[in-house]
């Protein structure tokens, strides 16, 4: 059995408990190569990624296990049927909440009773990417569970927000997951990449 990409204890037990009976939510393992890529074909053309190439990228990500959190859901037969990724971006700025608070006072109590101190800076943002559920598994709320699990990890590792890009047809799904429209995505694609 492969080792996990990151510490399994970051997986939310409450999210995992909402999965269908026999399904498991866990960090990616190197041995997930073929099944992971198969699920990703729901999103895009994957191409022929050799196990050697996969292993090199996996090892690179594992060496940065405080930045890369890739999770999978296995069905009751142990097959990977849903996947998602969280990439942590460490900013050189204050979080907007901290900046707003520090403009009014050095420390202010928030509505939930937590306090934010203006000394906190260099905040982190979670980028949720590559959410995919195998076609024969859709309708079981697996995509919702992937999003909830990644969102919980982002909170645990200190992100002040999570963001994602999606197609217009998927906007309603992500709104049901608690996300709201917050801008426009722009892209600049490079030839041959």
TrEMBL record:
Which example biological process does GO assign this protein? UDP-N-acetylglucosamine biosynthetic process
Q: Which reaction equation describes what this protein catalyses?
A: D-glucosamine 6-phosphate + acetyl-CoA = N-acetyl-D-glucosamine 6-phosphate + CoA + H(+)
Asked whether the keyword Transferase is assigned, the reply is yes
Q: Is the keyword Acyltransferase assigned to this protein?
A: yes
The pathway where this protein functions is: Nucleotide-sugar biosynthesis; UDP-N-acetyl-alpha-D-glucosamine biosynthesis; N-acetyl-alpha-D-glucosamine 1-phosphate from alpha-D-glucosamine 6-phosphate (route I): step 1/2
Enzyme nomenclature, EC number: 2.3.1.4
The record's section on Pfam families has:
Acetyltransf_1
Q: Which InterPro entries match?
A: Acyl_CoA_acyltransferase, GNAT_dom, GNPNAT1-like
UniProt keyword annotations, A-Z:
Acyltransferase, Transferase
Output the SUPFAM superfamilies linked to this UniProt entry.
Acyl-CoA N-acyltransferases (Nat) (SSF55729)
Top-rank lineage group of the source organism: Eukaryota
Q: Which residues form the N-acetyltransferase domain?
A: 23-193
Task: Give the Gene Ontology MF terms in alphabetical order.
Answer: glucosamine 6-phosphate N-acetyltransferase activity
Which PANTHER family does its entry note? Answer: GLUCOSAMINE 6-PHOSPHATE N-ACETYLTRANSFERASE (PTHR13355)
The UniProt family comment states: Belongs to the acetyltransferase family. GNA1 subfamily.
**Name this protein carries in UniProt:** Glucosamine 6-phosphate N-acetyltransferase
Give the species this sequence originates from: Tuber aestivum
């Amino acid at each position: 059995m492969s080792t996990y990409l990151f510490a399994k204890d970051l997986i939310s037990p409450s999210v995992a408990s909402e999965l269908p009976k026999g399904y498991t939510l866990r960090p990616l393992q190197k041995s997930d190569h073929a099944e992971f890529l198969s699920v990703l074909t729901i999103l895009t053309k994957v191409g022929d990624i050799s196990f050697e190439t996969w292993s090199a990228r996996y090892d690179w990500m594992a060496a940065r296990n405080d930045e890369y959190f890739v999770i999978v859901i296995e069905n009751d037969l142990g097959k990977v049927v849903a996947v998602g990724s969280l990439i942590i971006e460490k900013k050189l700025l204050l979080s907007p909440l901290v900046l707003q608070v520090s403009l009014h006072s050095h420390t202010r109590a928030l509505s939930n009773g937590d306090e934010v101190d203006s000394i906190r800076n260099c905040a982190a943002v979670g980028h949720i990417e590559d959410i995919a559920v195998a076609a024969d598994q859709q309708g079981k709320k697996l995509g919702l569970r992937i999003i909830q699990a990644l969102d919980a990890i982002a909170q645990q590792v200190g992100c002040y927000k999570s963001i994602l890009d999606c197609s217009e047809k998927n906007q309603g799904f992500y709104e049901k997951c608690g996300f709201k429209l917050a801008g426009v995505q722009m892209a600049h694609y490079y030839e041959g990449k």
